[in-house]
Design a protein that fits this description.
By secondary structure, the protein is an alpha/beta fold. It has three domains: 5-108, Response regulator (Rossmann fold), CATH 3.40.50; 138-199; 208-362, Histidine kinase-like ATPase, C-terminal domain (Heat Shock Protein 90, 2-Layer Sandwich), CATH 3.30.565. It contains eleven helices and 14 strands. The strands form four sheets. A five-stranded parallel β-sheet has the order 2-1-3-6-7, sandwiched between helices. The chain has a five-stranded mixed β-sheet with strand order 9-11-12-14-13. Strands 4-5 form a two-stranded antiparallel sheet. The longest helix is centred in the middle third of the chain and has 58 residues, at 110-167. The chain is elongated and about 90 Å long. It starts with a strand and ends with a helix.
């Protein structure tokens, strides 16, 4: 399990020491920081924080006034309020303000902290996932309205034209219009498949310890037709490495990246390099190509759902491929990014950070 990062905010050094000691007993690997005021606490902005233990009374105001700033600074952190005196009204206020729980200092024990932190982290993770799903649902609504309206309108129009042409005996025109209708149907079908893949990329399955070469072998089979049709040349470098992962997910991720390299080749014969190297307890895999490249200002935005480059807008697609890659990387405790140092073509890198224990827990 990943070590927690904990921030204790309390102006009483003795109380901070007590809470720190109990937390270190429960989470020996945790990184624990302390602050004696709200102002000092915010100096830790930019550092990861998973758990916040916040005193109700501080020298520069109340913890209640600070909750909103703390949530804005660390939106995924779970926050607990403490106070020297138990008070139901205070408890109600801090919960309504966004704290996960409230505990009088007299009731702080190792067991109480363990229960609070465990339950709070579960609730915070669930809340964050719900928020992400809500954001994606809003995006899905936009894309369904925008991208499905056109092909459905085309299908309706073409069906009317086919009926008219058939009645007039214009069978060549009927055949041409049928072909156009099939294109609109394929476009709608592709959009639906992309949406399904993005919302639930291999949500079940078991993590396995596999060789990178076996992943590349699967990719070569999946991409055989695309490689033959495009004439793309790929250099594979597995480094003789192996990794804990969900193999279908990683194959899909790499298939999306290589597919983009072929799609956005800019008329050149695609030349692609796929290489793996050690990174911490996992791997870093890079996919580099000689295509049209990604302008520096777009290299972060392309991983958002439905974001597509203007210059690539003539290419078919929904803008979900790289967003799906991001979800798969996150599932593997990794990250994905577009290399800012690449001057020609595009280089996408991602990490896989599943350890054996985490792989079993995630499965």
């Amino acid at each position: 399990m990943t070590a927690l990062n904990i921030l204790i905010i309390d102006d009483d050094a003795g109380d901070r020491k007590l809470v720190r000691r109990l937390l270190q007993q429960l989470h020996p690997e945790a990184g624990i920081a302390e602050a004696d005021s709200g102002e000092n606490a915010l100096t830790f902005a930019g550092r990861p924080v998973d758990v916040i233990i916040l005193d109700y009374l501080l020298p520069d105001g109340t913890g209640l006034d600070l909750i909103a700033q703390l949530h804005e600074t660390w939106p995924r952190a779970v926050l607990f309020m403490t106070t020297g005196q138990g008070d139901e009204e205070i408890a109600k206020s801090v919960i309504l303000a966004g704290a996960s729980d409230y505990i009088p200092k007299s009731a702080i024990t190792a067991e109480a902290l363990q229960r609070m932190v465990a339950n709070g982290l579960k609730v915070a993770e669930m809340r964050w996932r719900i928020q992400e799903q809500q954001n994606e649902l809003r995006l899905f609504t936009d894309v369904l309205i925008h991208d499905m309206r056109a092909p459905l309108r085309a299908i309706k129009f073409l069906s009317e034209q086919i009926q008219e042409s058939y009645q007039n005996g214009e069978f060549d025109e009927v055949a041409r219009q049928f072909e156009l209708m099939q294109k609109s149907v394929r476009k709608t079908s592709d959009l639906i498949e992309r949406l399904a893949s993005h919302t639930n990329p291999h949500s079940s399955g078991t993590a396995e310890h596999v060789t990178v070469e076996s992943l590349f072998d699967s990719l070569r089979a999946v991409l055989a037709q695309d490689l033959a049709e495009s004439g793309a040349r790929i250099e594979w470098d597995s480094g003789g490495l192996s990794v804990w992962c969900f193999p279908p997910d990683i194959v899909q991720l790499l298939q999306n990246l290589i597919g983009n390299s072929i799609k956005y080749s800019g008329g050149r014969t695609p030349e692609i390099s796929v290489a793996a190297e050690p990174s911490g307890n996992g791997l870093l895999i890079s996919v580099a190509d000689n295509g049209i490249g990604v302008p520096l200002e777009y290299r972060d935005k392309i991983f958002e759902p439905f974001k597509r480059l203007q210059r690539g807008s003539e290419q078919p697609g929904t803008g979900l491929g790289l967003a799906t890659c991001t979800k798969i990387a996150k599932r593997h405790n990794g990250t994905i990014w577009c290399d800012p140092q690449t001057e020609t073509g595009t280089t996408i890198r991602f990490t896989i950070g599943l350890e054996a224990g985490r792989a079993r827990q995630t499965a």
